[in-house]
Each structure stands twice: as C-alpha cells, then as structure tokens.
Amino acid sequence: MGEPLYELMDMHQAADALDAYLTEREPALQRLRAALAGHGLDPEEMLDGSVYSVSPLWAWINTRATELGVDPHTLTEDPTRPAWPSWARRSRLVDPHPPAATFALVDGFASYLAHVISTAAPQASWRVGEHLISDHPLLNYPVLATEHHQIFLPAIPLYGAYQCAHGRDPMSGTEMLAHTRRTIDAMHGEGPEAEAIEEPMVTVVAELDCFDVGLREDIPAQHPQVVAHLIAELCDRDGVESVHRYGPSALIVNVHDWDELRLKLWCTMWLQRHLPR
C-alpha cells in the first residue's frame, strides 16, 4: 500500500517515521481542539492537562467513534488513506476499519496523552522502539520512553476505537484513565508494566495450519480467569475456528486470514485492557 509497515522498516526508515510522527503531533492536537469546539465543547476545559481529564475526553471520543462506525471501503480502496496520520498508514490494520474522522480523533488523543504523560514523567523522551526480542510489538514504532518503559501511544486508543466502530464493549473513560496512570507509573519504573519490560505478554509461532500462542507465565498463574475470558472472546472473532489450551500458558489457535503479528497484537491489546492491576 505504498509505505512499509513499522515491523518491516530498517533503522533509517524507522528514524524517518519517528520524525514524521513528531511533526504531526501539534496539528493533530489542534484538530482535536477544533472537533471539540465543533460539537459545542470547551477545548480549554476538556484539555486542561490533568490526568483526570483523560477520562471524560475518552468517553466523548468513544461516543463519536461509535457514531462514525466503520468505513464502507476496504483498506486498499479507501480514498482517504493518504490523509491518515502516518502511524495509521504504517500500522497493520484490519477491515472493516474506522473512517478517517475516527483516526483523526485517535491521533489527537494520542497527542494529548503525550502531553499529560510527559508532564507527569518529564524524563520521558521520543525514540524509535527497540527491544532485545526481534518481533516485539514496539520494534521500530515511534515510542515515548524512559529507561523503564516505552509505549506507542495510539495503540490502546486505536484498539478502543475499533471496539466502538464494531459495536463491541468499548473501553470506558475510567479504563483509559487507569491505563494512563499505569503508563505514568511505568515511566517512573513502578508497576507490572515496568517490571515486565523485557518479556512480552504474548509470543506467537506459526505452525502448519495453526498458531502456537504462548502467554507470559505470570498471567495464567495469577489471573486464570482472564485467560479463560481471553479464549472465549478470541473464539468469537471472525475467522477463528478453534482455540485449544494444551497447557497453563499455551494455546493452539486455528484461524483463517490472520498472520502471527495480527494474532499477537490482538492478544496483547486485549490483555492490556483486561488484566487486573
């Protein structure tokens, strides 16, 4: 589709992608301000810079993303694609996808999150995502990072926007506030996200006609009910024929039209939302 995905970039492409992402931050925030004003809301009140403001702002974006639904075009045929944020064009998305207006809201929200998190954790800086693990989900992505934690800010909001667009249980403002607080703590080297930075939540290996999915060992040990919930929701996704659990942290997933990365990202995003803290 014209631009390489983050996962397929070399170091020079990833550095250029980070520059493009940073160039877009202030315009994205201004578009969010205009969208709020256009719907009769006070941008100064909604975007006051406090951690608590994340909750009502995300609740409003939830409502808009639900109203906007999905775009009638496929990813390859969507005429608005060239105007999407660079991170959306370079991320692995799936159909049916949200429309350009929803991507713009997520983009603005990511810019605002960066402001809130950087204020609370001023040691954070922008970097190209890196990791000892070659297929780590953040490799080559533009991340806000400290020595303790790194995060691609559009990831969780994009997951939430997809939930809204498809009429599924959306992430609440309270959940997004909790996510923001956990991120700030992790930037300071506190909490489970910082402690587990060297080990991903999910690993996926392609086998013949299926995928072997491994969960980080502490997840089933400490939260067995979450794994059962994960399996139930995964079974309900389009194309997933079956999920077989052959060990506490090991699954076999039979699914059509998915690759390792899509399955890994879906499971990772789902766990980041549902794991208790």
Give the SSE layout:
Layout: H1 11-23, H2 25-38, H3 43-46, H4 54-68, H5 86-89, H6 100-120, E1 125-128, E2 142-145, E3 150-151, H7 155-165, H8 173-187, H9 191-195, E4 202-207, E5 210-215, H10 218-222, H11 224-235, E6 240-247, E7 250-255, H12 260-274
Antiparallel strand pairs: 1-2, 2-3, 4-5, 5-7, 6-7
Helix pairs in contact: 2-6, 4-6, 4-7, 4-8
Task: Give a brief description.
This protein has twelve helices and seven strands. The protein is of the alpha+beta class and 277 residues long.
Q: How confident overall, as mean pLDDT?
A: 90
Name the helicity range: 40-55%
Q: Compute the number of strand runs.
A: 7
Rough outline: globular
Strands in their spatial order, largest beta sheet: 4-5-7-6
Q: Supply Rg.
A: 18 Å
Low-confidence stretches: none
Strand-pairing-aware structural class: alpha+beta
How far from one another are the termini? Answer: 39 Å
Number of helices: 12
What string, H for helix and E for strand, traces the elements in order?
Answer: HHHHHHEEEHHHEEHHEEH
Strand fraction equals 5-15%
* Major sheet summary line: 4 strands, antiparallel
Structural account:
With 277 residues, this protein is α+β, with helices and mostly antiparallel strands. The protein has helices spanning 11-23, 25-38, 43-46, 54-68, 86-89, 100-120, 155-165, 173-187, 191-195, 218-222, 224-235, 260-274; strands spanning 125-128, 142-145, 150-151, 202-207, 210-215, 240-247, 250-255. The protein has a four-stranded antiparallel β-sheet with strand order 4-5-7-6. Strand 4 and strand 5 (210-215) form a beta hairpin. The protein starts with 10 loop residues before the first helix and ends with a helix. The model has no long low-confidence stretch (mean pLDDT 90).
